[in-house]
Specification:
The structure is a single chain. This protein has about 350 residues and is an alpha/beta fold. Helices cover about 35% and strands about 20% of the residues. It contains 12 helices and 11 strands. It has helices at about 15-20, 35, 40-45, 55-60, 70-80, 110-130, 155-160, 165-175, 190-205, 225-240, 270-285, 330-335; strands at about 5, 10-15, 25-30, 45-50, 85-90, 135-140, 180-185, 215, 220, 245-250, 290-295. The strands form 2 sheets. Strands 3-4-5-6-7-8-10-11 form an 8-stranded parallel beta barrel, surrounded by 5 helices. Strands 1-2 form a two-stranded antiparallel sheet. Helix 6 (about 110-130) runs parallel beside helix 8.
Amino acid sequence: MNNSLQKSNLVIPGLGQQYKGLFDIGAAVSQTTIETQKELLAAHFNSITAENDMKFERIHPLKDVYTFEAADRLVDFAAKHGMRMRGHTLVWHNQTPDWVFEESDGVPAIRETLLARMKEHIDIVAGRYKGLIYCWDVVNEVIEDKSDVWLRESNWLNGIGEDFIAKAFQFAHEADPNALLFYNDYNECNPEKRDKIIRLIQMLQQQEVPIHGIGLQGHWNLNGPSIAEIREAIEKYAALGLQLQVTELDISMFDFEDRRTDLLQPTAEMLEKQAERYEQVFGLFREYHEVITAITFWGAGDDYTWLDDFPVRGRKNWPFVFDEKHQPKPAFWKIANWNNR
């Protein structure tokens, strides 16, 4: 069946169907997971994001080489299963090849060269998927975490100046005038960083830069951020008049500072607390459904998550609402049955 999985006479409601009319339910995917998690993705998600396959280093590894095969497969997967496709990401300080920032003799590229390379990349990539990708994370993670610095130091910033951000949005709009364009960042609910993100968005708006939304990554854990902090962030971002999406949601079993490596499975207490957290955040998302247009998990099932190696290499994590065998966890039922109460 299209919108549910059935096992042992228990019908499991499809998340996408449960939230139809409120917001999309998405998942980050890879070449591997569109095979190993195919049934799970088809049953529960109506949107996908490329975890890595549309990043600069994957799609444009050499100056005159574009490798679209992997990205094309994801776009085809989305179309086959009636899913919307999010593009991630056009301009980022990370996972961008060194050649982008260098002249032929190895010295740092000048501003004009960098702008030309950025524009060509965006023209070709966003242009290729025009009409197939409905929104792009145009610029990713340019706000610095350190309290006394506004913009993160990067080759883009050093080589072009702070207007590289506005230029990226302008180029993306020219390449696909109908695509929704997002700024995307993490620690977005931290009050200090939140206010710096708002400063950036206001600057872009004052310059009449084409920006349509803010991506709240949502890499959270069992203990934080607080619901009050998330609520305040949503309200302050929404006041800017842009749509919001939660773009990379996962709820880690471990705080960032926690370096434990002794657990082979989550404890019952951890699963219960995770279920409570998901229930609380999805209740909040539903409350603000008029400004939140999509919730995307940064994965689908616990068999694969980037958190398995971050920040503790080799440690297993279980951040999603489906377990390693793609079966619903307590958290799933907390968010799936909301309209039956």
